[in-house]
Amino acid sequence: MHTVRSFCRICTSVCGILVDVEGDQVLQVHGDQDHPFSHGYCCPKGRALPQLHHHPDRLERPRMRVDGLLQDTSWETCLDDLGSRLKDIIDRHGPESVAFYFSTMESAGFRMAEALHAAIGTPAKFSPLTIDGTAKPLISDLVGGFMGLSGRADLDNTDFLMLVGINPVVSHGHAISMPNPTGTVRAIAKRGQVWVIDPRRTETARLATGHLAPRPGTDHAVLAYLVREILCDGMKTDVPVQGIDELTAAVEPFTLEHTATLADVPAAELLELCAAVRAAKCVNIETGTGVTMTAERGNVTQWLAWVLMILTGAMNRPGGIWFHPGFAYQLEAFGEFLPITPIEGSFGPGPRSRPEAQAFINEWPCAVLPDEVEAGNIRALINVGGSLITSFPETGKLIPALRNLEVFATTEIINNETTELATHVLPTKDPLERPDITIHDILSSQVSVQYTSAVVAPVGERRSMWWVFAELGRRLGYEMGSLGDPETSTDDDVLKVLLSGARAKYDEVAAKGWAEVPRELPAEWVEDHIGRMGGWRLAPPLLVDQLAALEPPAPLVFVPRRQRKKLNGQLDFLGEPPEIFIHPDDGEAAGVFNGDKVTVRSSTGELTGIAKVDGSIRRGAVSIPHGHHAANVNRLTNKDDIDVVTGMVRYSGIPVSLHPV
């Protein structure tokens, strides 16, 4: 047996791991005590990598649909057929008839897929952005004037942290990256305060100094109340701002009485939270999918979170919020050429079948895919590592659309419902079979990058994802060699190209395993950018209008959650069931008791699962974990119910009813 040092790629926390290997068998994964970021922490998801690698349904060779049936085939036959059929579609219907869905943690494969998408020249691009995360870049754009302002709490020094709709003890912060979340939350609570705003007393709330449980869909009201009170006191900072009069008018209705009634929380608890905010040196706020999955409510909540941090002096200050300057690129190098976007936002033309759904960050809403297929506008889809059936909205409309595609090619490592619908299945290396660097470095909680060598050889005929897309591009007649030549380049050759303009070069990162640079607080490039813009934009008209238009939520709504042994569509084999959390009062009203089978029904569909009647969740909320096939929450969603500003589907706050089975 020998041990290989690597890093986990199950989520964006990318914790350091040690992998015990004997021959071609992966025996065990445990945390790396010497890792500079995670310090030995490793969650059940990361420790499950051996089961992922040795999964009984793992894909080991390409598959192609022949006479309606998927059959094993060779790479040459599969790619020749895929290339020929894609070329025919492009010749007959144009490049825009080919769509891409991007969802992978594989850096080289992701970049090569991006290169192929650009070479084809299609505007049809989809990603998880419009499934769980448009609010954050939207607010960066509208309030900060630059979509790349990716804020992170200075967790090592903050003494006041507010967590809204996020449960990092289980999710690890999702897009905020928090290795060892339990230790981090405990440390902040010990030296200061941690407040959790969530309809459930989550695992994180149990460690916090304060917990507020408003009605789902009213987080914005709590923040608007706090903003109103701080404005009454006067700003706690002298940073330049604009739009303060418009902001004051927008939050004026959110008095203590109005907010307590709307959010259905005791006024005394709001006063306690407000007193804590007033006393804090500055307020750090992190939001999660409990906020961002609520469509336009998520936009407004994220906006008011930023406003509260601006007013209390948290932005770009020690102990407050720092802004990631990038590792593979350096934002400060742009200087005065760093773009300032208009206060109206950055949007583009959307799909022909749904013209009201505009493009955001050059992406189309995932919700429009079935409409585009039905209209004949999209005839081929290339899925870059996504689990479409457990992530796209309104499953009942999605599955027929995927079946109607002329070509549906998907990269994957384990057979599942999505691969069973494909015309071409492209088995790529799993996380332990490839060398890699951390992708999307702006999601990191550090200004850093990591490297790992391959832990074991790939099983069967699995190939590198970058090689698959390079070979496909070659068959389509595109020059794809700038990132790597499929005939001569190795995985490491491609990684070297990806780090060619980074803060540290490939050889240095590969030799040590990681590289990082100190965080700069305050960062001069951020100060210069906000100064050139004329100050933080506190009241973008789009957001002011969305706040004014919000209606009270329905009496009983569905809200999603994550689980310790599950991440989106992954890790089903760990066996964590999709329990449906229901408050005892709501259960009694519907005739549903603990352990019963219960059907949750919306206007578009239903699912059935096991009820967990529990007082940890407040009245009016039905909590169901997402990512399950057996109780697929996407059957409750409506592809037509989107925020037309960003294309974000409403995945939370959906009116539902409960029915005993």
Automatic annotation (TrEMBL):
Origin superkingdom: Bacteria
In the UniProt record, does the keyword Transport occur? no
Name the record gives this protein: Anaerobic selenocysteine-containing dehydrogenase
> Which Pfam families does the entry mention?
Molybdop_Fe4S4, Molybdopterin, Molydop_binding
Say which species the protein is native to: Mycobacterium rhizamassiliense
What family does this chain come from, according to its entry?
Belongs to the prokaryotic molybdopterin-containing oxidoreductase family.
Provide the alphabetized UniProt keywords: 4Fe-4S, Iron, Iron-sulfur, Metal-binding
Gene3D superfamilies in the record? 2.40.40.20, 3.40.50.740, ADC-like domains, Dimethylsulfoxide Reductase, domain 2
Q: Looking at the keywords, is Metal-binding present? A: yes
4Fe-4S Mo/W bis-MGD-type domain sequence ranges: 1-57
**One GO MF term:** 4 iron, 4 sulfur cluster binding
Q: Which SUPFAM superfamilies match?
A: ADC-like, Formate dehydrogenase/DMSO reductase, domains 1-3
